[in-house]
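Q: What residues go here?
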């Protein structure tokens, strides 16, 4: 498979993952009791050729898309992972990042999903990372 075909396939997969996450989040909100916030947690690995800075730009653009589309009751944040060096010193991982999407809106609240700006931040994520794991959780009120 050519690199261009692989990139297109990756783009399609990421868009489907984002769409399924929204449906999963909606189901979690309606099917289970959550005394707190529904949160989508993703573990992402920085790609070869990608960067933490590029990933953080994707996170900022992701949040900005929601704000530009009138959605202000959610939040998207990234957390760098600490790793221990052989010397025992701690440093930030250059390859693993966690993202937390607090209160992801239901699909009916995001009618512009898939527009040019949406596709631009998805492309930033794709250029810089791969999702290694994804969870939908209930963050207790006392935490945040």
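A:
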């Amino acid at each position: 498979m050519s690199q261009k075909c692989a990139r297109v396939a990756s783009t399609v997969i990421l868009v489907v993952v984002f769409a399924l996450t929204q449906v999963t989040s909606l189901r979690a909100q309606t099917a289970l009791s959550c005394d707190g916030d529904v949160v989508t947690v993703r573990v992402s690995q920085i790609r070869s050729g990608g960067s933490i800075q590029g990933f953080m730009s994707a996170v900022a653009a992701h949040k900005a898309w929601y704000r530009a589309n009138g959605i202000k009751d959610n939040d998207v944040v990234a957390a760098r992972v600490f790793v221990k060096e052989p010397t025992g010193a701690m440093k930030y991982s250059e390859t693993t990042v966690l993202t937390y999407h607090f209160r992801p809106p239901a699909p009916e609240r995001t009618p512009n999903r898939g527009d040019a700006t949406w596709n631009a931040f998805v492309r930033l994520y794709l250029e810089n990372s791969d999702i290694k794991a994804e969870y939908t959780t209930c963050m207790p009120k006392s935490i945040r």
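A: Context that may help when evaluating the design: Residues 82 and 129 are 18 Å apart (CA to CA). Strands lie at 36-46, 75-84, 90-102, 129-140.
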